Amino acid sequence: MSRAVEEVNRRMLRARDAIDRTYAEPLDVPTLARIACVSQAHFIRTFRATFGETPHRYLQRRRVERSMFLLRETDRSLTDICLDVGFTSLGTFSRTFRDIVGEAPSAYRRRGAAAEAPTCFVMAWTRPSSFGEARPR
Amino acid sequence: MLNAITISHVWVLDQQEALDFYVGKLGLEVAEDQDLGFMRWLTVRVPGDPGRRILLEKPGPPSMDEAAAAQIRELVTKGATGFTVGFSTDDCQKTYETLVARGVEFTQEPTTREYGTDVGLRDPFGNHIRIVQMAAQPAQA
Lengths: 137, 141
Hints:
Helix content of chain B: 10-25%
Largest sheet of chain B: 4 strands, mixed
Distance between the termini of chain A: 33 Å
Radius of gyration of chain B: 16 Å
Structural class of chain A: mainly alpha
Shape of chain A: elongated
Oligomer: heterodimer
Structural class of chain B: alpha/beta
Distance between the termini of chain B: 32 Å
Largest sheet of chain A: none
Number of strands of chain B: 8
Order of helices and strands of chain B: EHEEEHEHEEE
Number of strands of chain A: 0
Helix content of chain A: 55-70%
Number of helices of chain B: 3
Largest interface: A-B, 20 and 26 residues
Strand order of the largest sheet of chain B: 1-4-3-2
Shape of chain B: globular
Radius of gyration of chain A: 16 Å
Number of helices of chain A: 8
């Protein structure tokens, strides 16, 4: 372990925080690489080495976690929720949701339970796990 | 039995940088700063709340070997040590604006929830800190 690794970790964390914060916006690799102060070529590889999954997959889980929250806590339409959390098509949203959560958004909504804790904890602890169970698209 | 929390700790990678942040930016005050020989005993507290201190602890020998310290540093910098410490404030929005002006790195802007309004931020090392303004409790009948 060297200081260099710590420095890279810290910058990758800054990029991951940016994903958490601006998940609803179109996020691209150049933007995130700029936040992390690394080249685009290095960004995806380094992010994965640091956090165990690609930035794209992390973003998908973040969006799906937020959609789960909205499905539980609101009665807004699937289309609204899909667009709200940053997906651009209902098809991609539904497919990604099913891949990660294991059931369709509408089925999840029917049996949803509420969680009331600081948002960051809900965010971190209800984010659907995907370390190996579901393949990124 | 127990009657209070008096001291808790935060892993910091550099105590001077920690002071610059926790005192210089967050506005805490130094409670103790003593060279014990084997370590620098450095604690901070919220002004006006003398009962609770935070030890700004640097991982390393002799309390642990360098390899263990490196693991801790790696976890802290990738944000994997989880939640670190929570503060309260009377005015979350104003505190947020003040700290933004001081260059504090926020992970979450003021967000209103049932329990109140809170923000998330990181210290220079990656530790996750939250500041909450509790919602006014409804008067008990």
